[in-house]
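Table S7 (text form). Paired inputs.
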Amino acid sequence: MKVRLSNDELRTYLDIEAPEFPKYTTQLLNLANQNAQGTRPRVVGQMSELIQHFTGRTLEEWERWYQNEKPDAIEAATKKVLAMVENLRESIVKIDRDMVERWVKDLVIVKTYMGLRFQEAILKKGSERRNTTYRLAEPEEEAKGIDGYIEQIPISIKPATYKLKTALPDGIEVAIIYYEKTKNGLEIDYSEVID
């Protein structure tokens, strides 16, 4: 039997009062912390390691012990997050209706289109590397697992995680180009097509 224990329930069972924050502020603080990396191990220590050395039982004992071990950590993290909050504060006043509309359009129209059409870009880049031509597959070719051709070579385009599947489906007997989405685009493995 599985039972869920919410953070609020944990606080209740451990007699820890929840701090009050105005609406949306914790979301902004989390975003600022993500960008500032204020609570990374290099700033506040490796918590999973530190807790192994803590022998106390109460929250108050933990706080005293931690601040003794890492006396400057809370201040360092606070400074990093606060600096990023100031950056966000300066940026948020620059956001107007026009900017929001451009951002929404880029997300809904442009990035959706790119996500749906990236296979063509992969084929085009591969054909440039081979100094040859490419084409997208016809519907009857797609039914055979072919996404396109580089020169006369039939190609299937799959995410890199496809390699990890234990039982690959039958029927894909063509060269495969693997890709992985990264923060800044795609990382593409053409090794079955390009030497």
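Next pair, protein 2 of 2.
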Amino acid sequence: MKREIETQLYKIAEDQAGYFSLTQAYELGLRRNQIYRELQRGKFERAGRGVYRFVQFPASRFEGIHIAVLSAGTRAVVGFQTALYVYELSDLIPDEIHLILPITSSRRRPGIRVHTNQLIPDDVTQFEGLPITTVDKTIIDCAFAHIDDDQIRIAIFQSLQRGMTSKQKLLGQACKRPTRVYELVNRFVGEVEL
């Protein structure tokens, strides 16, 4: 593998906790035999179907989520219960990985719940090398999706106590949703003293 391409691939992987997809490698001009050769040399290892990790990076505790995101394509974003789990704002471990994909994406993916919400750039951030909805967007999406009220209360309390979001951001997101969501969030935000 040429040094220039290796450096570019490493930079991509560095932003993704050491992971990269076969598609990303192909886009840089690598061919399957070159990837296989580097696997044999121990430069990176296979993490999942079509997903690899440079050996300098330890396996992420969210490896399954990284694999799902990279397999789903460059516009996949972690959201809903999976985002609460990644942010450690919920006691629940989701049965499926929740990803937000463009409407034109394939909807069938085993073990993945696909959502087709419209996202604006301000709704998305990076956390643990994952593209993920912001804390406030995540909590409001979960409230809209009828996640248990106690889980929403816990997420709001913990996110505010840890300085991960603000009351204003939560209420700003909530006002874009039905009255039920706004009233729920407003009640829980009011219970938190900072």
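The mean pLDDT is 94.
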